[in-house]
Description:
With about 375 residues, this protein is an alpha+beta fold. It has two domains: about 5-200, 2-Layer Sandwich (Ribosomal Protein S5, domain 2); about 205-375, Alpha-Beta Plaits (2-Layer Sandwich), CATH 3.30.70. Helices cover about 40% and strands about 20% of the residues. It has ten helices and 13 strands. It has helices spanning about 5-15, 95-105, 130-140, 150-165, 170-180, 220-240, 260-285, 290-305, 310-320, 350-365, and strands at about 20-30, 40-45, 45-60, 65-70, 75-80, 110-120, 185-190, 195-200, 205-210, 325-330, 340-345, 370-375, 380. It has a six-stranded mixed beta sheet with strand order 5-4-6-3-1-13, with helices on both faces. Strands 10-11-9-12 form a four-stranded antiparallel beta sheet. The longest helix has 25 residues, at about 260-285. The relative contact order is 0.17. The model has no long low-confidence stretch (mean pLDDT about 95).
Amino acid sequence: xxxxxxxxxxxxxxxxxxxxxxxxxxxxxxxxxxxxxxxxxxxxxxxxxxxxxxxxxxxxxxxxxxxxxxxxxxxxxxxxxxxxxxxxxxxxxxxxxxxxxxxxxxxxxxxxxxxxxxxxxxxxxxxxxxxxxxxxxxxxxxxxxxxxxxxxxxxxxxxxxxxxxxxxxxxxxxxxxxxxxxxxxxxxxxxxxxxxxxxxxxxxxxxxxxxxxxxxxxxxxxxxxxxxxxxxxxxxxxxxxxxxxxxxxxxxxxxxxxxxxxxxxxxxxxxxxxxxxxxxxxxxxxxxxxxxxxxxxxxxxxxxxxxxxxxxxxxxxxxxxxxxxxxxxxxxxxxxxxxxxxxxxxxxxxxxxxxxxxxxxxxxxxxxxxxxxxxxxxxxxxx
Length: 383
């Protein structure tokens, strides 16, 4: 979206006059390294060129008004009163929680009118919640210079989601959104927040996000179940050797585990972490073909060993891989619906979308959506 379009939308909501500041905060995709973060391993996300735009104008009041072109109603935040979570404020609780956190950090916040407009599919697992949190934090802390500590911004927004929204998320989403860089993926150790930027130059390929439009109903309950199974696995391995986490174990260590299900969960965590580190190696050599193969192996492991894919994700990945010009595909996110990603040659994108749409709809009865993206910058002001 162009800045002029955002300004026009803002003026339609709030009227003309005064300086309007415009910002952008991306969604994120995890390229490889799924269900490794809570097992002490690496993740490998990147910021998307899709995301949420925000426009802000100061209003000389002690009130912040929040509106979104993607949701009904408006939310008002009185800066003279205690900011509390309110069920009726719905989506507005995300920016509200961040405003509260910024004030608690000692920033002097002025009243303003804010309009949000996003092009991220809602509930598809591309981190729209992290995008609006990081966007709000950046807008509130922006003082005319881009000197905001992005790691601290990510940590603050994660804390808001954990303590204000009461969602037990890790830090990958907020970190990717805050610290993303164009054409760079981030190798991130979620335990200590050590990170490295790795070139992700797609050359004649594009990253296609494929939304299955299958809602992720089971994701939360199965996520907790998988975490429990991995805790059992590390407990067994620790009886035989000293390791801090599952991803520190070696593949031969799973032989200590007798239960087949627990063994397969451990095998996924260990091999997925190895694939993530291998991905960094091949991308540094600009070997996208080999990266595509690692994506395929990642999906197979998530399907067979971790069992978090489901019919829809398996179908869309399977149909993608049948297409000429697709060099790799896998589910991304928690699983049980949501999105998959594919790397597709630019001159084959239209044919790819038509074929996958037709075959996926025939098999599932659902209409998929496709988004062509590159790996883009983290949160920023639009000049």
